């Protein structure tokens, strides 16, 4: 230890170096944060990414028949995967498949077998959104991790997701009756017009990919602003 | 030439400092080397693959099956380039070597860590290297996962959609985080360029930097010495020098196991992208992550579904199962060196049976990982009738907690038995020694 404290009117070398390093670190962190801010691109919604809209027509989603219009006569209780097909600004047909959460499943049951869930079950089933002859459409993305449920082998009236064994009942608004999914897969209300299935309004509640109904409503609002 | 180099680079000092580094003579010390050499082979094969890979998910016409002029067969450019790599001479094999080597690297790293844990080599002064090793393991897994996404076949597409969902499940910031990490809402136009950047630049850079630090600290601190070194020369470094004795052993090792991996790759196909096809709405049933992430998948499979709203954020089963729970497990692994309060430096690898609690805890931990990995096959177990459907979750939960407990106490019992026998032997030997006098 030195006995005398060195009297230095100016900044010591150590303090200068420390201050310089601190300043550089602060500027660097700021730069990194702003660069990270640029990592998230701006939300661009094009017609092929828009959620299903009123007036869309349902077309096949499976690779072999992709883009073919689904006829009411080919629908059974086996789920058929479908995309909504709408029009772009120029009036051309556009399949809305760039947004994978638009995938829906089409099924047909006897109209009187549907059961509207009670108030407390947080599941919506719009009976007027089910076609006259019992054709019903739900989102086909499991609300748990986004896999596509298929008919359950043991009971074909149920939908089963093989990723983490989520089980849904399409007769009761696709509510969850087994496994880990947090929410029902929402209904997509439709009507039959001539020989095609026409969407009457978008999903009744948040499909997979949205945290909750509020998140979903905000997104719909954004879509409306961008696409009109 | 030696003289010429020495005048310029002072090779003789380097020789004294590094090239004479003593390597312990014990086969368990090769595990870290295998991990390192796998990384090198991965980088070489990765560079070769990158030369022919096209990092873009824009749709292009499939040149192998172009369709018609009116309805061209469009597939993502990344998938198309993966098909082209497969069609190259030895292209498919190159992909397989890269894939197998990644698996071997993680496996060797895990066994290397088990060696370090069970012999107490993580103790003071080597805590820092344990932590760097943990980071290496985490980043190796991340690199592997991003590598799965690059061929952009249907398997990759399904995998990345699940990963996106997991990232998005983080409360409050999940949406922003997922969009920032995957270049917009899934699947954005920029997803493949983004993942490509991670897989070939960011993550390998981190891996190489961490590996460098891991090696330098190991050279500085020296290896823990195996037990025989204590008998030969107490508190002296025993082993064979890197140059020239260890080098041929290393070369032999790398050639032998690379040859083995090439043999694997020649006969065992992995990740057949033609079979999975381009990204589509068709889900792949029974899709599973790689073996080293199967335990997370298993935890997700048996966790009951719930959603909790806290201050506007949503805490979901997805978040708890895929983020919080693995976070706890990894946190526990990070904490391992802190559980040891010894003040002295550790020189010698310990006999695991002399530390029964540590041994039993490690065995219980691995038992839990295995049970959770088996839980990842819940759907298959139920379908094959091995588990009743109604109580599958309950049974798997009981096993997840029960099997580690049983293995913990069983290990303690076995170790106690071994020590009792050993002591009895020593008493015997002592009694006979006296009889000889």
Automatic annotation (TrEMBL), chain A:
SUPFAM superfamilies named in the record: ISP domain
InterPro entries named in the record: Rieske_2Fe-2S, Rieske_2Fe-2S_sf, Rieske_Fe-S_prot, TAT_signal
A GO molecular-function descriptor: 2 iron, 2 sulfur cluster binding
Keyword flag Cell wall biogenesis/degradation: no
CDD domains: Rieske
Keyword tags: 2Fe-2S, Disulfide bond, Iron, Iron-sulfur, Metal-binding
Keyword Disulfide bond: yes
Domain Rieske: 132-199
PROSITE patterns the UniProt entry points to: RIESKE, TAT
Protein's recorded name: Cytochrome complex iron-sulfur subunit
Organism of derivation: Deinococcus arcticus
Lineage: Bacteria, Thermotogati, Deinococcota, Deinococci, Deinococcales
TrEMBL record, chain B:
Molecular function terms, GO-annotated: electron transfer activity; metal ion binding; oxidoreductase activity
GO cellular component: membrane
Native source organism of the sequence: Deinococcus arcticus
Localization (cell): Membrane
Keywords of the record: Electron transport, Heme, Iron, Membrane, Metal-binding, Transmembrane, Transmembrane helix, Transport
One Pfam family here: Cytochrom_B_C
TM region positions: 29-53, 97-118, 130-150, 162-183, 195-219, 249-270, 291-308, 314-336, 357-375, 395-415
Main location: membrane
Protein name in the entry: Menaquinol-cytochrome C reductase
Keyword Heme: yes
Domain Cytochrome b/b6 N-terminal region profile: 1-227
Presence of keyword Transferase: no
Membrane topology category: Multi-pass membrane protein
Any one of the GO BP annotations: respiratory electron transport chain
Superkingdom of the organism of origin: Bacteria
